[in-house]
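Class, study these two lines:
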Amino acid sequence: MPAIWLTSDTHFGHEKTCTVFTRADGTPLRPFASAEEMDDLWFRYEYQTFDTVIAGETSVFLVKTVTKPYQQYVDTDQKHEIVRRVINSMSDAVLTYKNLHEVRDILNRT
């Protein structure tokens, strides 16, 4: 079965997404200084799978990587909060190794 991906209202390049749209308490809906900054942030994840090539003899182990614009993958406040909590749980050594210090700072602006 082919994969089907659906998305809507990404607001790529829409400057007002970062400056006008706010939550009820007045905080920005999206934690970006500009539409350009929002469009430049991508979300990457990996998952592992394996398939049998010849039954009982060989298998293939795969690490699949998916990369999407952040706003396309993290499309709810709940998902954003999960990503923010995960990044905030990382040590400085992990943040440095994965080059995520700036990403952490961007996500914590809200």
Summary: Residues 11-40 form one domain. Confidence is low (pLDDT under 50) at residues 4-8. The first strand starts at residue 42 and ends at 54. Residues 5 and 97 are 31 Å apart (CA to CA).
